[in-house]
Specification:
The protein is mainly α. The chain contains ten helices and no strands.
């Protein structure tokens, strides 16, 4: 009996288990509004993605949030795709990113879809398609809903980085060394 009491007292004195570093309050996350979940740089999924080793958990959280909303919100597919690409899950990333294309009647399609095409081409190792997508993006007419003080076209530097660092992992293409303007044929 004494041995049992001693064991129980030691167990009671043991510190509580340390939570997993990728653990978040899922209920609280799912309760966030779209802007708080996706666009808040200090909230939502982003701090989780910045924790070492937690990108996969952040991608899963985005998927869970998207499923919880039961809505097709393109930017959530894009951000999950970026995280999957950072993890080297290129085909899954390409599949997710492909779901973000804009319909041809949408004015934003002229600049968004070439960005999607170029990123997917990079992930699939198709340099020629990446360069062609960059050319289409560079030629896109300025969108009326784009503020005049914003650089045009958006994401051109991203495609330049993908060209400059073609063949390297996606996560490396966001480094300053990759963001020089690409030499195109």
């Amino acid at each position: 009996m004494l041995a049992l009491l001693a064991a129980l007292s030691l167990q009671a004195a043991a510190p509580p288990p340390t939570p997993h570093p990728c653990q978040v309050d899922r209920r609280a996350m799912l309760a966030l509004g779209m802007d708080a979940f996706d666009q808040d740089m200090q909230g939502g999924w982003r701090p989780l993605a910045e924790r070492p080793g937690c990108e996969s958990a952040a991608a899963d959280l985005i998927r869970e949030y998207r499923d919880f909303l039961q809505d097709r919100i393109p930017i959530l597919y894009w951000h999950e795709g970026q995280l999957r690409a950072n993890l080297g899950q290129n085909e899954e990333a390409a599949r997710l990113m492909d779901r973000t294309r804009r319909a041809s009647g949408d004015e934003r399609a002229a600049w968004w879809n070439p960005y999607v095409d170029g990123t997917i081409a990079f992930l699939r190792g198709d340099r020629a398609a990446l360069i062609a997508a960059r050319a289409r993006l560079a030629a896109a007419p300025r969108s009326a809903d784009m503020p005049a003080d914003r650089a045009w076209p958006p994401n051109l530097a991203v495609l330049d980085g993908l060209i400059t660092c073609f063949g390297r992992p996606y996560r490396e293409t966001f480094a300053d060394a990759c963001r020089r303007p690409a030499a195109t044929p």
